[in-house]
Amino acid sequence: MHLIWYNGKTSEYEYGDVNSYQLKRSKEENTDNFTVLMEFPSDDEELASKLIEELNQAKDEHAIAF
Question: 29, 40 in Cβ contact below 8 A?
């Protein structure tokens, strides 16, 4: 399984398999910084990259508005 998650520490959306997510999360003191947004039953990096690009763009545009 693959995931898209929001990394509150870096303020970025990320994509990877469950093991990557768990490893990054385990290295943080505040695990609340990691929010899973989507789950993919298989690796779909092309779709995930498009979604992450859109999510980060929307986040950046929202930040500029304030």
Answer: no
How much is the pTM?
A: 0.82
**Residue 6 falls in which region: left (phi positive, over 0), alpha (psi -120 to 50) or beta:** beta
The string of pLDDT tens digits covering residues 7-60 is: 998 888 999 999 999 999 999 888 888 999 999 999 989 999 999 999 988 888
**Cβ-Cβ contacts under 8 Å for 8 (sequence gap 6 or more):** 30, 32, 33, 34, 35
8, 45 in Cβ contact below 8 A?
A: no
Cβ–Cβ < 8 Å for 27, 44? no
